[in-house]
Design goal:
Blueprint (H helix, E strand, L loop, with lengths): L2 E8 L5 H16 L2 E5 L12 H17 L7 E5 L12 H20 L4 E4 L5 H9 L12 H9 L6 H13 L3 H7 L1 H18 L2
Helix pairs in contact: 1-6, 1-8, 2-3, 4-5, 7-8
Length: 204
């Protein structure tokens, strides 16, 4: 009988809600007889998700995820884009952005740290999507500006929600996530956290 992992996902845009659930389903399958199901807790699409909303509300959604007995949750995932490059050896700029989110979550993050995973795509999550679409060399896309990446991914610098969701859903369905972890250091950081969590979760 398969085991179920219930997780909450909070992101700053529309692409995250297509890309990361596809990845989580894949990662759960890689970890064994495990099924990943996303809870219904998120920033309402009608409210236009944004980085400021993630920073302001991540702690609230995290606490809500783990205190609602009617809707049990095993894992909280939240992320914001770096909105820039990071070519430092140790991802210093990326890590600084992660700390920003952790500090905004404050004591809630510290309370649920063992069940919380935070991610920061270098530039934007569109870079992760672009890597899955093309045979790009490792860490080659992060130097490209966000607008240029959006145009390459979606065919438009200002795609609407429907276009973003369609393109990302189709790209994620065919994605080689193992390869992506070798192409993008920021995705590798996220992937490592998820893999380690799932290994521990399967032992419980």
């Amino acid at each position: 009988m398969s085991k179920t992992l219930r997780y909450t996902l909070i992101g700053e845009g529309f692409a995250e809600y297509q890309f990361i659930p596809a990845y989580m389903s894949w990662a759960a399958g890689q970890a064994g007889d495990l099924k990943a199901i996303r809870t219904n807790i998120q920033i309402a699409v009608s409210k236009n998700p944004s980085v400021s909303k993630v920073l302001d509300r991540a702690a609230m959604y995290c606490a809500q995820s783990f205190t609602d007995d009617r809707n049990p949750c095993d894992l909280f995932i939240a992320g914001i884009d770096l909105d820039g490059t990071d070519f430092t050896d140790d991802l210093e700029i990326h890590d600084k952005r992660l700390r920003e989110l952790k500090e905004k979550m404050g004591k809630v993050y510290r309370q649920y740290e063992d069940r919380t995973i935070l991610y920061v795509p270098i530039q934007a999550i569109d870079c992760w999507v672009y890597y899955t679409q093309h045979q790009a060399s490792a860490n080659s896309l992060e130097a490209v500006g966000k607008d240029d990446t959006k145009k390459k991914v979606y065919g438009d610098k200002n795609p609407d929600r429907q276009r973003i969701e369609k393109v990302v859903r189709e790209s994620a369905a065919k994605a080689d996530f193992s390869k992506l972890a070798k192409q993008s250091r920021s995705f590798a950081h996220f992937h490592k956290q998820v893999s380690e969590f799932l290994t521990t979760y399967n032992k419980t």
